[in-house]
Structure formats: structure tokens, C-alpha cells
Design goal:
heterodimer; A: six-stranded mixed β-sheet; 14 strands; B: 192 residues; mainly alpha; 0% strand; disordered C terminus; transcription (chain B)
């Protein structure tokens, strides 16, 4: 047996068969990497992008309509204030013809689960507030593109008219100026975890999930992007509830924030991370502004909130904003 | 009557077709993505492989107009792009090999028959092989592994890396010499 043969055998041992997901990469060829679609839970990561400080509440708030979390109005400095619109969905792909809008392109792709939130960064940067907007809120959507004005669920503004339409809609509804937008998808999440060098989590019980091919022992584990993604998306684990899943997402995001905080002291590392983040999300924020925000917010306190809501009077499966509470909340963010 | 789209032959035809019909490029992906995936999974593990394969095709697609149609086979071109991408992960690659130095031989996952087929010798010297790979200079490792793991010929490696065939030979020889030295140069069936 010669050395090349030995090497080939070693190669055979190390080799992995391509997974079915490899086909996703084929798709990238024609959609382009910069046109990925946004994952609601991944919205937490967006926050890593916009600011370290906001990351945790964003996921905490994500997808829950919890009236008790409504923010207590407090005075906010106006100068230098920024409001960032954060959008996420768990749709993998399917951005198509802009003319028809992402909604049609994604039709049939599967359930979309948008997270919409407004991250408020006051001028003094001592606090940050993430206000989640329930996606099934019935609201008045102004004319955008070819869509006529109408009353509909707020996420339809995004699905039909993209982030621009959602921004206009929310600006009209809240009276806030939304200075920036950030969109993220779960590929972005994976990339960000990898950029952070993985995350360490402690598991109460081992994971052996066929669907995601994820196997982890109980106790502390260091997860790479793919594993972290598998972990937060597990469905048949623990009591299998959505709340349990949200908790796992929080765990991962908290671990990520810990990593980011350690990067804050090292400008080179932070810059590298933000570069990766910039690749993974779609945003109009420049690298420099993200860098600036991240450093400014390193000591910020976090508030989380939901737009005050109540069941819609005509359809209990929909949500209506509770007034004047909602307006009062937005007033504090101006 | 032709109802099927014409079956395209050589890779170069696909590339030139993609100049006017970008979708034609997808056929190249279907032909080679699995092969590239296996190759990179050996060097960097499955975590990175999928993304690097995707990246390789994205870059190839962007550069499809500069493809030299004189080469019918696109594999060297694709391997060349992939090699550059892999080189960004050299530290990770070396760490992967070094991990093999420590890892116990995992025989539980394979039947005895598999082990016999793969050759017990390869397993027995795994640590030495891995150590040698980890220690090789990147350029020598690229050549050695394109031949051993990528199944390219000397000419194809030369084309992939944009170097003369003579350089391929010298790098290969140097790489193999180091591997043999790590193995203690005791192998009676050694060639050359």
C-alpha cells in the first residue's frame, strides 16, 4: 500500500455525502446572495447587527403578543434618535420578480412567519427599546406600488410591497420616522453564529433529532451555525411547545450577545463580525453606522414592548391595536 | 421529432450556452456540485462544505464569460476556484487534521468487513497521515490533495492552479516525501 493509497483511504474516511440541502446552493446561482429573504426568530440576530443591546429583547418579543410587556412611558431624548425597522421571516427563499413582489414569489413555498419590530435607539443610547408589532394586526395600509389602499393584516404590506411598503405603512400608523431598515433570514443567522465562532449552550437533555440530523449530548456544547440553527428550530424536543422553542431561541441569542460583548473590546474582531453581519442581512445601515451603534450601545439598558393590542372586534383571530395606548407608546419614541 | 431539449455534451458547451442563457449554468451545478462537496468535506468537514460549493459556483457563474472554451472539461476550473476558497480556511483545515491525531480510531461505526476493505493499515497510520497533512505547506497540500482526493491528473491540477505541470510534479513529490517520512518510510510497497 503506497502513500497515495493511504491518503485516499483517509479521504474516504473523512468524506461526507452531500445533503439534500445542497440544492439550495443551486438556487443561489440565480437569486444572488444579496437577495436572500428574511426568519422571524432570526430577527434577534438583526439586532446583533443593529445593536448588541437590542438582541435579546428582539427575540424575546418575537412573535408574542403579550400585553403585560407594554412599555411604561418614559421620557426619551429626541436629538440623535434613531428608529430602525426590523423584519424577519422564516421563508427560505423565493425572492422573485420585484414587479410582482415577494408575496407571489413565495406563494406555495410554505408558511411565512414574519416578525416586525421597531427598534428605538434614543440619542443618549442609554436605553434601547424593541417594540414588536403583531403580524396579524389589522391596519390601514396606504397605496404602495400597484396595491390600492386597504385594511389588511400588517404583514401583507410586506408580503406584497416589500420593506418599502411596510415602512410607509408603519410611518403613517405610528407617526414615527423609521430611519433604517434591516431584513434578515435564517441563512443570516447561521452565518452570524459562525462569524462569532459558534455559541456555547447548556442542554438539560441530549438531542437526537432525525429531521435536522442534530445530535448533541446533555450538558455544555459548542454549536456552529448549522447546529445552532437546528437547535433553535427543533420542534420535537422538551414539551414540544412554541414557548419552549422561543426559550431555546433566547438561550442562543443570549449566548451570541455574550460573544458579541466580548468582541466589543476588540475593534478588529468587532469589525470582522459586522462585516459578516452585513453580508447576512439586508439593510441600508452602513458598516460604519453599525459599528458606531454597536459600540455606543454596549452599555445600554434594554426595554421590550409590544404594541398594545386587543382581539379584533370582527374577527377574534385578528388583532386590533388598542387606542389610545398604542399612540401613547409611539409618542414616547418620537 | 425533438420534444426534449437538446442534450448538451461537453462542459464548455454548457458554459458558452450560459453566456446567452444563464439557466444553462445550472446543469454544471448538477454535474459537479456533489463531487466538489465530497472533496471539500474531506478537507474542511461538512459544516463548511455546502457553503463553499455554493460560493464556488457563484464565482464561476460570475466569471463564465472568461472561461477558456478550449477546455472541454470544467472540473479543473471549478477545483481551481474551490481551492482558493479553501485556502481562506487553512487554519481550520490544519486544526481538523490535528484533531485526528488525538481522536481514537472510531471503529464502532463500521463493520469489520468495511474495515478490511478500507485497509487496516490506513487506520493504523491515520494519526501520522493527519499530522503530515497538517504540517504541509499550503501549496504542496493543495497539489497533493487535488490528486489524491480530487482525482485530478497532473495536467488538470496544473490547469486548476494556473501553474506549469513541472511545478505540479515537484510539489507533489515534495508533499509525498513528507508524508512518507511521517510514516517512517517503512512501507515496503512504496513506489518511485
Amino acid at each position: 500500500m503506497d502513500d497515495l493509497k493511504l491518503l485516499r483511504d483517509l479521504g474516504a474516511e473523512l468524506e461526507h455525502e452531500p445533503p439534500a440541502t445542497l440544492a439550495r446552493q443551486r438556487h443561489r446561482l440565480f437569486t444572488g446572495r444579496r437577495r436572500r429573504r428574511p426568519g422571524w426568530w432570526a430577527a434577534g440576530l438583526v439586532a446583533v447587527a443593529t445593536s448588541v443591546a437590542v438582541a435579546v429583547p428582539v427575540v424575546l418579543v418575537g412573535d408574542r403578543h403579550d400585553p403585560d410587556r407594554t412599555i411604561v412611558a418614559e421620557p426619551v431624548d429626541v436629538s440623535g434618535t434613531r428608529n430602525v425597522l426590523v423584519v424577519g421571516s422564516d421563508t427560505r427563499e423565493g425572492e422573485g420578480n420585484a414587479q410582482y413582489g415577494p408575496g407571489q414569489a413565495r406563494a406555495g413555498v410554505g408558511a411565512r412567519s414574519d416578525t416586525i419590530m421597531i427598534v428605538h435607539l434614543p440619542a443618549d443610547r442609554r436605553t434601547a427599546t424593541a417594540v414588536s408589532v403583531p403580524r396579524d394586526s389589522m391596519v390601514r395600509i396606504p397605496r404602495c406600488g400597484s396595491s390600492p389602499p386597504r385594511v389588511d393584516m400588517i404583514n401583507s404590506a410586506y408580503d406584497n410591497g416589500g420593506v418599502a411598503c411596510l415602512r410607509t405603512t408603519l410611518e403613517k400608523l405610528t407617526g414615527l420616522r423609521l430611519d433604517h431598515t434591516v431584513e434578515v433570514d435564517f441563512t443570516g443567522f447561521k452565518d452570524m453564529v459562525d462569524a462569532l465562532g459558534g455559541v456555547t449552550v447548556t442542554l438539560p437533555r441530549p438531542v437526537d433529532d432525525r429531521a435536522s440530523k442534530l445530535r448533541l449530548p446533555a450538558g455544555r456544547s459548542h454549536l456552529d451555525g448549522e447546529q445552532a440553527l437546528g437547535y433553535v428550530r427543533l420542534r420535537h424536543y422538551g414539551d414540544g411547545s412554541d414557548i419552549a422553542r422561543i426559550k431555546r431561541q433566547q438561550t442562543v441569542v443570549v449566548a451570541m450577545v455574550r460573544q458579541v460583548k466580548s468582541a466589543l473590546g476588540e475593534p478588529v474582531k468587532l469589525e470582522e463580525l459586522l462585516k459578516e453581519v452585513r453580508e447576512s442581512v439586508r439593510t441600508d445601515l452602513s458598516m460604519e453606522s453599525m459599528y458606531q451603534l454597536a459600540t455606543e450601545l454596549s452599555g445600554a439598558r434594554l426595554d421590550v414592548a409590544s404594541v398594545p393590542w386587543m382581539p379584533h372586534p370582527e374577527d377574534k383571530n385578528r388583532i386590533a391595536w388598542k387606542q389610545p395606548d398604542a399612540d401613547k407608546l409611539f409618542a414616547t419614541l418620537r | 421529432m425533438i420534444t426534449q431539449p437538446a442534450v448538451r455534451g461537453a462542459d464548455s458547451e454548457l458554459v458558452s450556452a450560459s453566456w446567452t442563457d444563464p439557466e444553462a449554468f445550472a446543469e454544471l451545478f448538477d454535474r459537479y456540485s456533489a463531487m466538489l462537496y465530497r472533496y471539500v468535506s474531506k478537507r474542511l468537514g461538512p459544516e463548511q462544505a455546502e457553503d463553499l460549493v455554493g460560493e464556488t459556483f457563484l464565482i464561476a457563474f460570475a466569471r463564465r464569460r472568461s472561461y477558456d472554451l478550449a477546455y472541454a472539461d470544467a472540473r479543473p476550473w471549478l477545483f481551481g476556484i474551490l481551492t482558493k476558497l479553501v485556502s481562506r480556511h487553512h487554519r481550520k483545515e490544519a486544526a481538523r487534521y490535528r484533531a485526528l491525531l488525538r481522536a481514537p480510531v472510531d471503529s464502532a461505526v463500521e463493520s469489520p468487513a468495511d474495515r478490511v476493505a478500507a485497509g487496516v493499515t490506513a487506520r493504523a497510520v491515520r494519526a501520522e497521515l493527519a499530522g503530515a497533512l497538517a504540517a504541509l505547506p499550503a501549496k504542496d497540500r493543495d497539489v497533493l490533495l487535488l490528486i489524491a482526493w480530487g482525482d485530478l491528473t497532473y495536467e488538470e491540477v496544473a490547469q486548476a492552479l494556473g501553474i506549469p505541470v513541472g511545478t505540479v510534479r515537484s510539489r507533489l513529490n515534495r508533499g509525498r516525501r513528507k508524508v512518507r517520512a511521517a510514516l517512517g518510510d517503512t512501507n515496503p510497497m512504496e513506489e518511485e
